[in-house]
Prior knowledge:
Elements: E1 6-10, E2 26-27, E3 30-31, H1 32-40, E4 46-50, H2 54-57, E5 63-65, H3 75-84, E6 90-95, H4 103-114, E7 122-127, E8 130-131, E9 135-139, H5 143-151, H6 157-162, E10 166-169, H7 171-177
Parallel strand pairs: 1-4, 1-6, 4-5, 7-10
Antiparallel strand pairs: 2-3, 6-9, 7-8, 7-9
Helix pairs in contact: 3-5
Amino acid sequence: xxxxxxxxxxxxxxxxxxxxxxxxxxxxxxxxxxxxxxxxxxxxxxxxxxxxxxxxxxxxxxxxxxxxxxxxxxxxxxxxxxxxxxxxxxxxxxxxxxxxxxxxxxxxxxxxxxxxxxxxxxxxxxxxxxxxxxxxxxxxxxxxxxxxxxxxxxxxxxxxxxxxxxxxxxxxxxxxxxxxxxxxxxxxxxxxxxxxxxxx
Length: 200
């Protein structure tokens, strides 16, 4: 098992606010997922998709992780499925609608985990008092914790992390890489697409 070999892009959302499937969104003629893959490939050997139907995501030449539990109840199921099927000690999880992710920031997070005095179950950035659970590292060992909560009907990642040995990263570190914290931006509405030219 490698240490940081894998990143997973969650694609299981219903995109109700956007009005169409965000996982198939194109930016300047390219799928947004392909843009994410280019960035993630700078840090990881393997990039996978989780939480979507094979037929819908077949346009991408990537491994697709099938849900291990009831689909359509939030990203916790996608994270759980990724952790159950990983061959990496840690998995970086992001969402298919976050095109501004910063590889240098992700590498900083990897270094923080690698050199921390204990082995956290997760590394979660803070953003103005809120957590960014879809821009985080999770250990494979957290699969059992996710499973227990999902079986209870609890799909809130915040709640699942409460009793975990999670390391929360102060947002002052993130601002080194993105002063306005744009890397945590996700696209929810068609109006958000007006700012898509900011994608690097």
